[in-house]
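Researcher: Structure for this, please.
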Amino acid sequence: MMILVNLRGVAFLAAGCAAWIGLLALGVAGLTAALAGCAVAIGIDLATRLRRPGRPLMHHEAGGMIGLVPVWMVGLLAALTATLIATALPDDWDHPRSRPDVASPR
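Model: Predicted structure, token format:
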């Protein structure tokens, strides 16, 4: 029986999200933090998968799965998406815009 989502996959993605949020809290840039979080999730999943010899990287029992997709693939897609979004946005998208001085009503 195929498992759509396993708890290992959820835990691996949670570790990646925790790394991402932790780095954002430390003041790291958004893209860098997102890529580091993806790297954490990918690294944990590949380390788990490669410890089991004879199982391919796509095997559902070797590591984490989210919707029949291995976590390392989900992490790569998330990293690609974060990179595409960051390169499409203007350079100062995350800086607060200064409001023009408006004369206060008298």
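Researcher: Any notable elements?
Model: The longest strand covers residues 65-66. The chain has three helices and two strands.
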